[in-house]
């Protein structure tokens, strides 16, 4: 089987979970000897040659093609300057906010040119890039005919998937890694929601990364449950990471590591920390990361008068991330809405017991973790206290958690995906 | 006798280096030697050296008729000794003329007056000792608290230490209809004279001098003398208090600030009845006209002239309270490095950097801060403080066992 896949980023040039998940999936497909044509808006040239890569920026669009006009018209109205920033890493968040000031510098555009140089980022003109990407997809679908099925990852690539389907007539599978409801709560960006909804309805089948995400798709996007298959993400490497790095402080450390945004529920971590510190002053809490709620969290920690026990590291990269996991005694992910959430699995690899919110997809696959409602700060504080003080339970989590990881393999995911393709193709014919 | 009293504040904090969470428990040195040295060297070239040379020239030229006062913070003295001995030497020369008065303050430019009398007294004493040591046995008679922070209570503490006078801001909300151009006295200890800054004329030099949108731009010595001549005859004292960095650093040499100062003494002495005096001379000669009530502390900062530049938001209060919680433990510890860090961490600038008022006004805060945001300042300070607390607790345990 040949799959024409549309993504937005691919390792090593990624800013979040989407690129990593695509990488794992393509790797899994390789394991089963399936061919993948993988399109990204911008290729950097140092991607691992796992697929037949197509650089969106290299595709010449033939404007004489009448069928393309429709996509052009449909999408050019989407000029939005709001915060359309899915999967925005903390470093990117900073860049993005800087970028908004300096405005566009890295995209050259000319109405006379027939190619479009994508930034491949999540910049201010994201919407323009998304609509251009659909044109590129239409061109590719017209030029290439040697594929059986189209697979588009997240809303950024949905217009591309829809265009490719319309031009080629081949079935479309859309893969939902996150929805606008996860990112923004109830105050969704309407244009993004519209694109998501259009993609889901145009698709022949939908893949969701968790049951939680599937439920959102059914409830908020009006898609019948029978059209959706849940395929949980996996891990690329399940080996336990042994770190030489040693803790420098006598106290135990409880860590939050991630973007400090609404979606990740940082405020619940802060409130739970206060409850724990009141009972046990020999604990340090660390909030690692950056995001639009960082300053508010700092204010709150100061207001609760616990800033000598609650630390902020800013955005961590490279070795510092590993060091942070290594010195943590408990890892907490209190996400308000997390389609999957790969970070707790990283913590497990470092032998760190984890507490995750019930509102996360990863809670569906990780059994050896404490699960609490994100809003239940009392339960969260209890769980933190228990993992810090009762050796038995944290020891058990350490042993069993790593066993569980070994079962989460991308080749299993790919195998299930192949049967989704087969089913979809069968329904077509 | 009508007189002008010049007092210049010279202060540099020990700025913290970027101190990360991962450093807590391991790295016990908090100070950004490179940055601190660079700042001192830069300001030395632009301000301290040329302005000291100019003042020396003026003092010699007017032979006893021109005089000024300085307050040199202890953190400045320490950095000057380490990074700018040439500047120290030029200050020593100035003091040796006998026309330059030195004022006392807290050693580390601290806010201790607001928190702990004991710590306040300790830091004042330390500053006194240090001045004695560096300036040939010199003993200041007049006190100025950090950022001219003053209240009736602080005045009483200062009086108790034996000072004749204290300097503070002529804050509008304290003075009301009264003029700053008189000598007042403390409410609790009436023998302590209170000298108030005339912020209008001080700021004409310190802030507005080079402002081209100011209707009175450019400020000339003739204009300035005309203004002081317009002051009602019965008002005797004009206190011009400002940061020393006004000369050459806040107002660059190109603005003509040095030329203004070079010609000001002659203009004042020739065209007006004003003389020049130091704070202790003013305190000794001018009678106190009345008590001045300052129940709530005032300062010379920002439009509000209150404490909100350093204290008041949650970050500042948290940092301040956590720091001073250590006071009693630190006092029992005999360790020069802990004592040094204890002092330097108290410097008011650290709290100034955490001020969130600049969101609305006061680009002044931004100008002085080595941090991008007050949040960065808070995090960095708290990281260093967390390590400091660990050290203090460890030392305390060692001492007790």
Question: Largest beta sheet of chain A: what is the strand line-up?
Answer: 3-2-1-4-5-6-7
> What about the largest sheet of chain B?
5 strands, parallel
Compressed to H and E, one letter per element, the order of chain B equals EHEHHEHEHEHEEHHEEEHEHEHHHHHH
Structural class of chain A: alpha/beta
- As a percent range, the share of helical residues of chain A equals 40-55%
Terminal CA distance of chain A:
16 Å
> What is the level 1 CATH name of the largest domain in chain B?
Alpha Beta
CATH class of the largest domain in chain A: Alpha Beta
Number of domains of chain B: 2
CATH topology of the largest domain in chain A: Rossmann fold
Q: Which stretches of chain B are poorly predicted, pLDDT < 50 over at least 5 residues?
A: none
What's the CATH superfamily of the largest domain in chain A, by name?
A: Glycogen Phosphorylase B
Sum up the overall morphology of chain B in one term.
Answer: globular
Say how many strands of chain A there are. Answer: 13
Question: How would you describe the oligomerization state of the chains in this entry?
Answer: heterodimer
Low-confidence stretches of chain A: 76-89, 96-113
Q: Specify the number of helices of chain A.
A: 15
Instruction: Estimate percent helicity of chain B.
Output: 40-55%
What's the β-strand tally of chain B? 12
InterPro entries (chain A): Glyco_trans_1 (IPR001296), Glyco_trans_4-like_N (IPR028098), Glycosyltransferase_grp1 (IPR050194)
Domain Glycosyltransferase subfamily 4-like N-terminal (chain A): 137-235
Pfam family, one (chain A): Glyco_transf_4
Protein name (chain A): Glycosyltransferase involved in cell wall bisynthesis
